[in-house]
């Protein structure tokens, strides 16, 4: 059974993210010239286990890069963009990203614990098997984004825009949704226990056990008690 919170009771098809464009060949990273620095423009580089830790960089542009086991722990990024990039088993713990965009990117098996992504854009992004608990996505613009089998307990999407966003098999226990704007969003077989601001998910489609969990959260916020 599918429950829909959409005006008029109609649902819209959720688009799937586009895959990153493939670069013909990637050269190994040379950290002397391929590090995260202000105004850096880096294309077609492969980072393997590269430490990008506790840095501060602004206006970085990275295109067609691959990151394998790279660590961004504690790094602060401002007004930067990653396009057509692939991230595998990377560590984004405690990253502070303001006005940072991911365009046509895939992120697999990576950790975002305690990271903060604010006022940026995710467009055509696919995240799979990631730990994002907790993670801050306040006022983010999410367009054509898929979260699959991610641990997202306590994730904060307050004030975010969701357009063609899918959550599949994700643990969203205690996630916060107040004042978010939903164009088209779908939750499939997700855990939605004790979420906050659930009324702001009007327009979303919920399938699976999360239907009852979300309904109970909405009732709790409305001051309804069950005995």
UniProtKB/TrEMBL annotation:
It comes from Streptomyces hygroscopicus. PANTHER family: ANTIBIOTIC RESISTANCE PROTEIN MCBG, PENTAPEPTIDE REPEAT-CONTAINING PROTEIN. This is Pentapeptide repeat-containing protein. It holds the Pfam family Pentapeptide. InterPro entries: 5peptide_repeat, PA_immunity-related. It comes from the Bacteria. Coiled coil: none annotated. The lineage of its organism: Bacteria, Bacillati, Actinomycetota, Actinomycetes, Kitasatosporales. Gene3D superfamilies: E3 ubiquitin-protein ligase SopA.
